[in-house]
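Researcher: Quick test of sequence recovery. Tokens follow.
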């Protein structure tokens, strides 16, 4: 018995020693870069940004609601506001409103860079709840308000201002730079990004890297980290919607059967919601753990340094919030439930839509298989509905493009921590996987508790200094790549 006890103590000591060794050798992997002196950005850039925000380039779900006059106005605005770009860069327009500019470099042996954004915005669901006119381009207390300030005229205008500024300085890149701006990202990108990507592929263009919208600089949003943390999206989740339908006998509500179409479908939806796909620490999430873990306090650092041991704890922690849960699993969101036409008629049919955002390593087919297994009811018919896409490939973090983006961020934003991560929403860059394996997703603004819910929501806004820093960042990125 004593030998067993001694052996157990030795095992425990060795186990704890292993954990501590892994923790204390879990050292920082942050790139060491000196910040650059911020260049002066003239306030005239704000006037142009305000004008861009006032043009209602809205993408509606119903194509009949599309207002071509607003997109035509944005076309004119681009040409009038950026005369050097208009005169010195090659320019092509796709499907009337999407734009591709090419800034020719002097060294054709260098693969080009592609900077992306989209000019369309989502509709305003409740304008009366806004503090300002959502399309007023209002500036109050050094904050710019309006639809598109975050998503995504911020990127489009920041990139254009940076390029116009470099042109005015007489800069000539060695590496060609493409600027790709779609006009229908919010409804799938079929007429914009898809058309641009097809053109680039047909012309044999292979990019060194692509930078699109995605994550931002988070403030006080990462437990255990006080510093600002910027995330570079190295992959994005896929999206699929499953339609569930039930057809059964109806009748008068005074004589209900033991189960109706509503009962059966409601139970099926509850089963799917209550039995999500298994959580996993995907490659982008592991990249985040390896880059940010060493910057955390001892307890969090210990958990991240020993993911093989503490994975259940990490998973349970992230499952506790909607955002955290989205980073570790394919999410399940019932979005539509339809049944019935009158209060005293038992409906003969019921229909529901469930949207899934798919984590890398799983596919839409996996989701459908899972739904069928969980429901396990032949009365419930399932099929794919609408737009579906699998997760994007995972881009490497040991590439020239990632290093250039990382370096530029740290030069412009002093004291910034950076890490790769998984983008939980969809971007136009998913259409560019045949143009480059190095696709990254980052927008240089700050996200915190006060503005995170304004994305696609009410009172979308961004500080004036964030917009000026965006111009500085894109300018620095182009300089560093040349």
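Model:
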């Amino acid at each position: 018995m004593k030998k067993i006890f001694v052996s157990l103590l030795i095992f425990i000591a060795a186990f704890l020693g292993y954990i501590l060794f892994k923790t204390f050798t879990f050292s920082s992997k942050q790139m060491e870069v000196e910040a650059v002196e911020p260049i002066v950005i003239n306030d005239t850039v704000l006037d142009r940004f305000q004008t861009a925000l006032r043009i209602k380039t809205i993408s509606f779900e119903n194509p009949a609601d599309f207002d071509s006059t607003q997109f035509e106005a944005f076309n004119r605005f681009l040409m009038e506001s950026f005369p050097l770009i208009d005169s010195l860069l090659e320019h092509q327009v796709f499907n009337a409103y999407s734009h591709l500019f090419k800034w020719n470099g002097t060294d054709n042996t260098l693969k080009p860079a592609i900077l992306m954004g989209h000019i369309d915005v989502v509709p305003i669901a409740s304008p009366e709840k806004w503090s300002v006119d959502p399309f007023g381009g209002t500036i109050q207390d050094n904050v710019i308000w309006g639809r598109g300030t975050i998503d995504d005229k911020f990127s489009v205008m920041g990139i254009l201002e940076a390029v116009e500024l470099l042109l005015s300085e007489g800069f000539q890149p060695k590496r060609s730079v493409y600027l790709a701006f779609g006009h229908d990202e919010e409804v799938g990108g079929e007429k914009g990004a898809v058309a641009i990507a097809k053109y680039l592929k047909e012309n044999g263009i292979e990019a060194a890297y692509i930078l699109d919208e995605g994550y931002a600089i988070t403030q006080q949003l990462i437990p255990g980290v006080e510093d600002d943390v910027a995330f570079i999206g190295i992959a994005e989740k896929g999206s699929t919607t499953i339609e569930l339908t039930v057809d059964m006998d109806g009748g008068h509500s005074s004589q209900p059967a033991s189960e109706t179409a509503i009962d059966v479908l409601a139970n099926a939806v509850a089963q799917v919601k209550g039995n999500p796909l298994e959580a996993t620490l995907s490659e982008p999430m592991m990249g985040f753990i390896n880059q940010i873990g060493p910057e955390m306090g001892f307890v969090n650092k210990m958990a991240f340094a020993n993911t093989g041991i503490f994975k259940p704890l990490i998973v349970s922690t992230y499952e506790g919030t909607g955002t955290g849960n989205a980073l570790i699993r394919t999410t399940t969101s019932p979005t539509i439930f339809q049944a019935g036409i009158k209060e005293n008629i038992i409906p003969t049919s019921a229909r529901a839509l469930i949207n899934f955002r798919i984590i890398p390593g799983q596919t839409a087919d996996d989701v459908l298989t899972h739904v069928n297994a969980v429901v396990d009811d032949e009365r419930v018919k399932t099929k794919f509905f609408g737009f579906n896409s699998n997760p994007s490939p995972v881009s490497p973090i040991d590439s020239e493009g990632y290093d250039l983006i990382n370096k530029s961020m740290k030069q412009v934003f002093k004291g910034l921590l950076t890490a790769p991560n998984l983008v939980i929403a969809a971007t136009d860059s998913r259409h560019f996987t045949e143009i480059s394996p190095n696709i990254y997703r980052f927008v240089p603004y700050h996200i915190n508790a006060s503005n995170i819910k304004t994305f696609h929501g009410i009172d979308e806004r961004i500080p004036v200094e964030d917009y000026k820093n965006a111009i500085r960042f894109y300018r620095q990125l182009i300089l560093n790549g040349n």
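The domain at 238-389 is CATH 3.30.70.360 (Alpha-Beta Plaits).
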